[in-house]
UniProtKB/TrEMBL annotation:
Protein name per the record: Cardiolipin synthase B
Signal peptide: none
Domain PLD phosphodiesterase as annotated: residue spans: 160-183, 336-363
Disordered: annotated span: 1-35
InterPro entries, per the entry: PLD-like_dom, PLipase_D/transphosphatidylase
SMART domains xref list: PLDc
Pfam family, one: PLDc_2
Biased composition annotated in UniProt, kind: Basic and acidic residues: 18-29
UniProt cross-references to PANTHER family, sorted A to Z: CARDIOLIPIN SYNTHASE, PHOSPHOLIPASE D
Length: 423
């Protein structure tokens, strides 16, 4: 073999990324972005990044904690054509019984009821393995069609990570819900007791409900269901209200729609960026964006779970980000009474985010997630009030008060980043 051939077999600069001086970063998605000002500029940026821009004509209702179930069940009981549910967690409990009863009644009245659950959240959980016996069997006997999303045959690592973390309910193709909810006892309370998780959800009417229905349809098909009938997709005309976009994201190689959405929402902030998130340990690029926003004079705040957390290693990973953010000027609180499970962002006085997307590597890179992004000043004011109420039940973290990192926190962050890392 010639000397030239030997050289060509070695890694080369350029596309191989072995230039060694860091210039390969110019070939990766960068931030922070400079967005055109206001809702129109943000919508245009969102559209060219995700294929979805803000569209007008949506009536939305912010629902805290268990409020969502009373409203949801009311809509389900009034359903005329179809009820579609896609949830990560559905486990036997009193709340589950209420849904089983409502779906049973509607199914026997001729309404097409379809349910998809993720087996990791709903079935393969120690002590809660009775979804098939206590929930699925009852629903199936009543005529409700139930499927599991991606069965865990073989339990290959990629299959364990490639789950659906979506929380979607669509009634008659006209009303939709998303947020952090699951069908389990921890969501039944007010978020002020240790065994009642604090969460936030959104009810939507308007054109984007069709996009949410498409998300359900894709999961339904992959789980063994057929094509949905045409009446599941009614024409939905704009009818007042705010502008909204539903961002459907799934795990893939490269930057997902979820991460694109988060980066653009952060970039849109000019005065305020308040983040409440159950699993706050974002990639370094987003942490850098937050630091830049502080330098630009933006009021950046983070609210995360405190002593009550369902995944201790993620809480440690979350706390590993504090030292650098506090040093940059970000204010941080930890919610004290219960597990904080919300996934919300509030930008200035007009842009809101409510959905299932956590700010960790797993959600941003591997999981199927859904998020409503919308311009609605009335709901923005309500989210501000919710934030201030939650802060009254929270502990502010400083460098002298729990904000320093340590070897355990650094290890936890490496572990959680590795679990969801794809590039």
């Amino acid at each position: 073999m010639s000397e030239l051939q030997d050289v060509e077999l070695l890694p080369q600069p350029g596309a191989h990324g072995f230039d060694g001086d860091g210039t390969n970063r110019k070939h990766e998605m960068q931030g922070p972005f400079e967005l055109p000002p206001g809702p129109e500029g943000f919508s245009f940026a969102l559209y060219q990044s995700t294929g979805v821009g803000l569209s007008p004509g949506h009536r939305m209702h912010l629902l805290e904690n268990s409020q969502v179930f009373d409203r949801m069940l009311e809509d389900i009981r009034a359903a005329k054509h179809s009820v579609h549910m896609l949830v990560y967690i559905w486990r036997p409990c009193a709340l589950s019984d209420r849904f089983v009863e409502a779906l049973t009644e509607r199914s026997r009245a001729g309404v097409q009821c379809r349910v998809v659950v993720d087996p990791v959240g709903s079935e393969e959980t120690t002590g809660d393995k009775d979804f098939d016996q206590k929930v699925e069997r009852r629903l199936s006997e009543a005529g409700v069609e139930v499927h599991y999303y991606r069965l865990l045959a073989g339990k290959v690592l990629g299959r364990l990570l490639g789950r659906s973390h979506q929380k979607i309910v669509v009634v008659d193709g006209r009303i939709a819900y998303t947020g952090g909810f699951g069908i389990w006892k921890v969501w039944e309370g007010d978020g002020l007791k240790e065994d009642n998780w604090r969460d936030t959800h959104i009810r939507v009417e308007g054109p984007e409900v069709r996009r949410i229905q498409v998300t359900f349809a894709k999961h339904w098909q992959e789980s063994g269901g057929g094509l949905l009938p045409r009446e599941a997709f009614p024409e939905l005309e704009p009818d007042g209200g705010g502008c909204a976009a539903f961002i459907d994201s799934s795990g893939r190689l490269g930057i997902t729609e979820a991460e694109r959405m988060v980066r653009l929402v952060v970039a849109a902030a000019t005065k305020r960026l308040w983040i409440a998130n159950a699993y706050f340990t974002p990639p370094n690029d987003i942490l850098e964006q937050l630091e830049v926003k502080v330098r630009q004079g933006v009021d950046v705040r983070v609210l995360g779970p405190g002593p009550h957390h369902d995944v201790p290693v993620v809480r440690a990973s979350q706390r590993s980000t504090y030292e650098r953010l506090l040093a940059a000027g970000v204010r941080i609180w930890e919610y004290q009474p219960a597990m904080l499970h919300s996934k919300t962002m509030l930008v200035d006085d007009w842009l809101c985010v409510v959905g299932s997307t956590n700010l960790d590597a797993l959600s941003l890179n591997k999981l199927s997630e859904g998020t409503m992004v919308f311009e609605d000043r009335e709901i923005a004011a309500k989210m501000e009030a919710c934030w201030e109420k939650d802060v009254r039940h929270s502990k502010e973290i400083t460098l002298e008060n729990g904000g320093r990192t340590n070897p355990w926190r650094r290890f936890a962050r490496r572990a959680t980043q590795f679990a969801g890392h794809d590039r």
